[in-house]
Amino acid sequence: MKNKNVIEVENLSKFFGDFAAVNNISFQVKAGEIFGFLGANGAGKTTAMKMLIGISSPTSGKATVAGFDVYKEAESIKKNIGYMSQKFALYDDLTVKENITFFGGIYGLSKKQIDLKRCELVEELGLQEVTNSLVASLPLGWKQKLAFSVSLLHEPKIVFLDEPTGGVDPITRRQFWEMIYKAAHNGTTIFVTTHYMDEAEYCDRVSIMVNGKIEALDTPKKLKEHYKTDTMNDVFLKLARG
Amino acid sequence: MGITVSNISKSYGKVTALSAISFDVKPGELFGLIGPDGAGKTTLFRILTTLLIADKGQATVAGYDVLNDYKSIRNSVGYMPGRFSLYQDLTVEENLNFFATIFGTTIEENYDLVKDIYVQIEPFKNRRAGKLSGGMKQKLALSCALIHKPKVLFLDEPTTGVDPVSRKEFWEMLKRLQEKGITILVSTPYMDEAALCDRIALIQDGKILEIDTPNAIVSHFPKPLYNINADNMYGLIASLTKYEHTYSIFPFGEFVHYTDKRDSMDKESLKAYLESQGLTDIHIEETQPTIEDTFMELAK
Q: For residue B65, what are the β-bridge partners?
């Protein structure tokens, strides 16, 4: 299972006019892997991620996600992945229950499946008291944990997490990562961006983008050895400073 | 001339944002408010910058009372809110000029103070602020907050969502501003930035957990702390969670930070237990706590 690639990217580029936001990147992600996608602001992470989730067409190169081609099968990609970002995840003016029902519906689950998933999810996150509360009233950490669970409702092969833990308190941040480990343990592939370098250490492998290119890609351990540093933070500083 | 905060409370309806907060910031100090989203940091900033009135308590900024002398405070402080609040449809230069003018000064008069920061965005001075990248917006916002030469600078989460390289550069800029005699109150959710402040207040749920220098806060950690790693992180966390002697476990980069309930912890028996759980390649060694460890211990 772990040997199968669920993301394959080959010489992928995206130009805006003359500007190469993503410049000829290549990498593979294996099933069940936690893959950290790092880079400075403006390095091209978001542009690359948008191509992989099927909402932006590449200028050149090849990529498949969950076996689907990013040019021709973007709609199939969207059905087979989960996505959550810090900026947008859930509807604040819907209740917890309504959000779960809404996203379950969007992902094409039956009413029965939605009811079952909702009970499981509410139980697991301990949200019994707040199922009928507006999401706006929940603490950020709860929202993020709920958003992650919602992104897994349709049991996607891959889940894309765009800075899922920004601003979250340190305890909740760790609980969030325990959920990520669990999902990966159950075979879901995790593709995650973060600015917390300790979180980079939690990944099986990490890529670091600099000015549209992938400058490094390996396990955190090997990256630290290669750049002769003790922490991923120092690896990042060495690379991103150029 | 710094900041004094005495028993400040603020509620929004039933929600208590700040609950009897007290602390002082000395003149020229770089003071950090460290806490997650929803801790009450922004409410406190808004009270100190006279944009919000507290329900209870007193506060002064640069020697002025936040209620009675609010106009003097507004002339004496620079404020960089968490959300980008410059004029998106004015250019970089127009924004800076605007802020200089409303404070009765000019860019030229205080150019020295903002020079370090402003030179980095000056090549884009004719670009509209709305079209800047995140890092450039942050630099422009800081320039605008400084252009009237404030005595006290308030920075509300200036580095949230900013990558580690830009965060490092931003803190280097803060240190230089501090050397120019400006008192700085800065908030951040990044615990690693706390170590760069003179003193910090750890804040959560509207209450201050502790105030001290970063070194002192770390030294208050109550128990020996151990780094543990093994071949399988998920299995390691699951096994330690079940272990009868576990006091706390938190994933920390490539390790798990572990504290033991007992007064003296027995490494060998812990290792044997982990092996019995099917883990291999187990390493256990004592390590130094960080501010994040202390925060989590206090917030438990």
A: B60
